[in-house]
Predict the 3D structure of the following.
Amino acid sequence: MKSIKRFLYNLLSSRRSKFLKTSIMRMFVPLIALSVIITGTFSYFIAYRQIEENAYVSLTDTVSQSKILLDSKLSDIFEQMLYVKNVVEPIYLSLKYSEATMKPQYYITAESSLSQVYSNYYSMIDSILMYFNDGLFTLQKRDYITEDINFSFDEWRGKYNNKEGDFYWVNLHADEIFKYHRNKNRVVSIFNLIGDTDSQLRGIILFNLRESFFSNILENVEISENGYLTLISEDGVMSFKNVEEKYTLDESDLFLVKAEDDSGTQKFSNSYGTKMMAVYDTLDTNGWKLVAVFPENELTQTISFIKYATAIIMVILLLVSVVLSNMLARIVTKPLSQLTKKVHKVEEGNLDVIFDVYMENEIGILGKGITKMIERVKELLDQVEFEHNRKRKAEFAALQAQIKPHFLYNTLYAIKQLCKMNEMEDAEIMVSALATFFRISVSKGEEVITVKEEISHVENYLIIQHMRYKDRLKYSINISEDLYCYSAVKLMLQPIVENAIYHGINNKRGSGIINISGYLEGEDLVFTVHDDGIGISSEKLEEIKNLLQNKERNADDSLGMGLLNVHERIRIMFGQRYGIGIESIFQEGTTVHLKIPAIKPLKQGGIRIA
């Protein structure tokens, strides 16, 4: 009882409530903090990857759309050059021979084709040059007055004659052929070398494309603050957005042209050491790379914002979790502190405390449970007290049954008669047996003795009875010494033997035999007391069995009283599965079985299960 009250008090005392509150805080705050950190970190990396992927997808779409537009326009220019080439090809072939002469229709035909192309694609074409046989046949188209035409066929042929094909592209460059009187034009050139380069006749068809055409396409695409769209070829980089020098590309960055894939993404550091990112695609018309270039840190600016925002949210969540955990701890510990006061009263021994907790939660269930437990404890205390008194009464009745005056008087009278007959040796044996009998009966108040002591007690009782009844009573005890070390209930066999003598053998003619045996059955000890006396009628036997089963005492039934006392004491000591069983056949004899657990005594005086 005290241990139960101490446990409850320690659990619900104010000190424990504070400990519980601290435990809740220590448990929930790290868990919430860990979940917030994991969630925040996971969200950050997901956002980073998603933003990066979205940026690449968006730029890829932008580059792809710009590439389609450029390919479409440049393909038209390429087709116009093929058209002009087909027109002037017969003129070139006729001028191939030295005796050929220039005919007026040559100029008319060529002029007509150039004018048609120039007028149709004026927004794209800045100027056109047709040059054959060192200037023998020259035509040009432009919309401005030039100071002079400065063209060297050998220079152009020498620079590009090692490339495959007949059509060549030149990235954005200053126009050195048609010098404008106001400023120097910048153009993109496409030209076709005509004729056998080993012959004396040479020719070229040259289209100069306007810078504004490319700038309108490349400059109007918004990449990022310092990002831009550029065209890269082996001979240069074309871009129009004004950015800081550290974000620009130069000849060292032309490696993008040699990329193995036609399209893709790439990270690199430019010649200024700036970390850049590129999303590129390849023009089908001339193989140039259309590249969206932007600094890597501009992509991570949005990520940085998310990172700092996530960190701030995580801190806020942690603070909120601390506040909520503290509130939760208070919600949990406040009702517990109320229970503490009541449990403290229980600690003082007041079991009439009512735990009137009406909360419909775990605390309410705990209060109700404690109330029921205290009620159960009170019931157990009453039951223990009842069983204790019952046990003491059974022991008293057993002792009272053993120390019957007539048994003591008869024994002392028998000793007196032996002394008168000068049979001092038999008298000495009876006195010794009687002394041992009463010594074991008292046994210093111990309720549990050894099997050896109980057998000695019964044996001394039988010695006394045998000397009184002489040849009318015979007995045998067949119990192995291996069982002597086990514990036994004091005075458990003697009342059974006494019943066998007075109610069995005494009521038959002639002598009788009592056999006592014992053996180990699993974890139990089983003793049997068999007599060949008068036996018990079936009606009386059924009555005795009911008496043992229902524990209904009958003060007039001396046979039932002896067995019932032993039966009750065994069951009180060891439980309901142990006790006495009886079998009898009228006119043949009776056998009583007694079962107790196989227990060995501890050195401290207690018992332990074998």
